[in-house]
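ping. complex inputs:
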Amino acid sequence: MYMGVKERRKREKEQRRQQILDVARELCMRKSYFEVRMEEIAEGAEVAIGTLYLYFQNKDEIYATLCEEGLDILNRLIEEALQEKKDSQARLEAIGRSYLTFYAEYGSYYDVLSFVGMGFKQIGLSRELETRITQKSDAAIARLETVVREGMEAGEITGGDSKEVAFFLWGLLEGLIFIHRRGYMNAWSVDLASTSTKAMDAINRGISG
Amino acid sequence: MYMGVKERRKREKEQRRQQILDVARELCMRKSYFEVRMEEIAEGAEVAIGTLYLYFQNKDEIYATLCEEGLDILNRLIEEALQEKKDSQARLEAIGRSYLTFYAEYGSYYDVLSFVGMGFKQIGLSRELETRITQKSDAAIARLETVVREGMEAGEITGGDSKEVAFFLWGLLEGLIFIHRRGYMNAWSVDLASTSTKAMDAINRGISG
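pong. complex structure:
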């Protein structure tokens, strides 16, 4: 009986935590991160402001947690995409597809993530929070770089430096998504899926060993 | 004598306008556009708030003017880059270089521009201001698309749709700059110039007719 209550409380706590994160993600998408206030998050999640602070120390911690959730999804998609693919070109294409899927199906996480360290206005997260996000973000890049390196070792990919090749493959999709997200493709009647496929094909031809 | 005074006043007015824009650009780089206040711009430019409103109706108009200045520079760089280059690959590479130069040498304009319509938090400029910016931005894309189309007509470029090829060339550099701007390249000891060159080479091989 006692354990039942404890279990239920734990489950309720987890549900409330998730509700807070959902509201925060929604708010971060609708307006600037800087404009989102803890009071609004509490209100949206239907908890008292004091309760909100029992779950998260501050707004940055909520934000960092959302980034981590997003990166966990991305890393899972990448691993799933790599399960069956054998040669390097197919593996690179699979990673590319998983990035596009992440953008298409988990767009709210993509938006939150693409805000990290935006150069012209750093958020200024604590070193601890930044480290937490950076580790999961590095895992995704490292996975891509490994596939490129293995392809080079197998003689299937040329282009010199595996890090550089990994970065320009990533850059290609990041840029296409960026341009799409800002509405330029719609304005020019250009399709993201078709353009990405052709871009990946072209770059695959350009780097085949 | 009368003309002299009129001329001087006109010059002073232009100088003050430019000073306002310089301060605004600086502020937009240091913090969120949403956080920048007209009072701060006035203070930084050493003009009364009432004077500021004689020059610009509102913050959005200042922002749009900065975007236009940036796009004028970019379009000039592209035209200069295309002056001497003859074959399609060389012309595309020249446009690519001019975009990288724009980022490297006019980074503050790049930052202001890359903020336009950022998807997850639209600024909500008036239709008139948005149209002003869009025209100059479209000119840059149109120039790139024309070079691709001419290359396809000359049989020097393959890849089907000239708009799609233009967009993925643009996407490639936009993404590399985005990744660089967010600090990922430094963290991985990857060089932007070298990576861009290799990326452009690879994609050039991939689309040569």
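The two ends of chain B are 66 Å apart (CA to CA).
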